[in-house]
Amino acid sequence: MIQPSVPESQIIGILNNLRIVFDRERTFPNLISKAENVLLPVDFALNINGFLAIIEYNGSQHYKAKNSSTGAHEALRRLSSNGTARLDYCNKNNIPLLIIHYKDKDRLVKIVSDFIEDVKNSLHGTTKSYTAHTKGYFKNIPYGTFEDSPTGPIKPIQVHKDDTLGYISLSNDAIVWTKKELNTLLARIRSYENKVNQYKSITADLVLTIDSLQHELKQKDAELSEQANSVAAESNSAVITTPEPKIKLKLVEDSKPIEIETQKFNGNFRKTSSTRGPLTNEARIFIKSLSEHHDTVTEIQKYLKDNYHESVSLPTLKKCLL
Questions:
Q1: Cα distance between the two ends of the chain
Q2: By the 8 A CB rule, do 53 and 96 touch?
């Protein structure tokens, strides 16, 4: 970006005081210098209520050659052609254009302020003379809109060629760097980005682990609290009972075992005279009653044989005891 002249610096101050957003040396895709075939910048691109307006400050070199040399006259023709290109572009795109003559450099505040007010009031379809030398060009409405970023490509380095000399115009924002240094810088940036992503991943895992542990602790606390409440409830509802006193039995030394006398059977054991004949019903009832005094079938069998001389088989005795 070329260092602004003194009048251009004054215009910058005026726009700042009026709180007007603007771009310096902004380019547009279809605004091209026919003489040099490059994008043609404008001095000031203003944002007035969202609409685009342009201010050009023309120094003396725009109106007369600095000297009588061929180069000076060629420069004048180039500046005149560029001025015409800007005017045609603004008329075609409905962009208000203010061209300030260098002879009006002492009246900048009023000229710029009046132009901004005319744009706010949507002045159109006319060419307004702010002084005998400075004019504003208003085509049609609605005006073209102001965009936040330039619509044309930014070319910080431009080579301008003439018959004898070519020169490089380097803006204040441009950086000259070798390809090797640029690749090194890009590699470092990628390395830093990878490290940042790794740290983010580790941090995310730690957060998840901490959240999981906190959840488990809450569950354990809830379980312990529930157990404590349950124990307390059982303690409050428990009935205290005293054990019954044990009664000590006093043994009688002179006591003798009581013998239970078995009832005598006077009937017939067999339905026939045979020793293996079937038992009578009375015999069966008697045998069954013997189970109250004898623990086993064998004892009953022995008792019958010893006292009644009856040999009754074990299976038959078992049937009687059922």
A1: 126
A2: yes
